[in-house]
């Protein structure tokens, strides 16, 4: 036996026992971006100051406080309208590359229309954007994160086709005022949520006509998106050099078993929940997914409607909507198991009845503080791969991913969640070649979680709602995320965070 032999045995044994092998150091590409997100109604407060108009969320939470879990509203929330400089300091401290925030339409256009442009609203977002640039933080701007001017809702909101033109007017103001300083725009955040829950569920404006109004809303959102994409390409792109996307909510739909029925049901669920918006925009067809068209047309006929409840695009609209994206914004939180539904409990007509599937979550999946959100990192990788193969590997910016937990600064479960999902993302990028350009944690701060009020906390920073200053304090997860954002790598077994990141894996 020579020395060489002993050395190789030693190396072999050392490799086997070295825990960093089982838990390797994973780094993201050089130009990969890390950021955090918020939305205007959820953090700004200042609901009626400095010329801001009323939004549908102002009206809804004031009119029906009992519908919100804790009977609260976003009147003050995190008071970011007055405390945005403090927020930028937190972003700086976190070391993120970008900040995704949304612009409040009624803060810019109090009447909804461009007859009255609110100077103070323009000033506010200019100051926020300038402060971000001063700190080397890239603004990623969502034009619409659910706070429609109430005036426009009084005309039918997203169910009225004319809204597409008003959205274009609003977008024009944004490009003109901020376009020289913004490289990433998102037209809409989660149209599935605000159309389905807003016009056929519990969210503002409180519409109760699923199967009709949610489809009208979706239709006009797609038309509006296409028009704004064209406007940017024709009038602003050359000079401003930015890119435009839309953010879709993409929960993974896993077949409940390997049976053909369950696989078909899962695919139907994917087409109804993400294909509804992705298919028209990300494919050359520029139209709804075939399965949606087929099921809704058939059901409408059976239910004696004169025409399909799913509207048709004109050929000009198809032209405008197809391929109207530079990147896809993707929000992902959780996974569902899917099988065919018996449709006994769904209303007729309704989106759920048309989709005709049954969704559930496994009891063993780790829980969050939101009933719908279970921790399933592998679903993230599958969702990214489905988008890659279905839509020809588009550029993706993960615009939201996060977990709600009970208040408290020691949040190892959040560290564990982020770490697990980032490892799945790393596999999707390096092993599966998905084109993902950045990752956004939702959210920078605790905030108004819509119908759940302040009861569900997603923040890397905790907000003390008892204090007039709305004091912000970093959680353990803020220092974990700071480590990831500044090194571009996930911790290894020798790093401090391993204690938290290894639990539940
Ligand atoms: C999606 C929405 O865009 C955001 O507003 C919400 O707070 C998070 N998901 C968490 O539910």
Q: Mind explaining what this structure looks like?
A:
This is beta-glucosidase. Its EC number is 3.2.1.21. Keywords: Glycosidase, Hydrolase. The structure is a single chain. The protein has 505 residues and is α/β, with parallel strands linked by helices. 44% of the residues lie in helices and 14% in strands. It contains 19 helices and 15 strands. It has helices at residues 3-17, 19-22, 40-43, 56-63, 80-94, 105-108, 119-134, 150-153, 163-178, 191-200, 213-240, 260-282, 290-302, 315-321, 351-355, 377-390, 412-430, 476-487, 498-501; strands spanning 26-27, 33-37, 98-102, 138-144, 184-189, 243-249, 252-255, 327-331, 335-340, 357-360, 396-400, 436-442, 461-463, 472-474, 489-490. The strands form four sheets. The protein has an eight-stranded parallel barrel, surrounded by five helices. A three-stranded mixed beta sheet has the order 7-9-10. A two-stranded antiparallel ribbon has the order 1-15. A hairpin with an 8-residue loop joins strand 13 and strand 14 (472-474). It is globular and about 60 Å long. The two termini are 41 Å apart. 1-deoxynojirimycin (NOJ) binds at residues 39, 42, 189-190, 331, 400, 442, 449, 458.
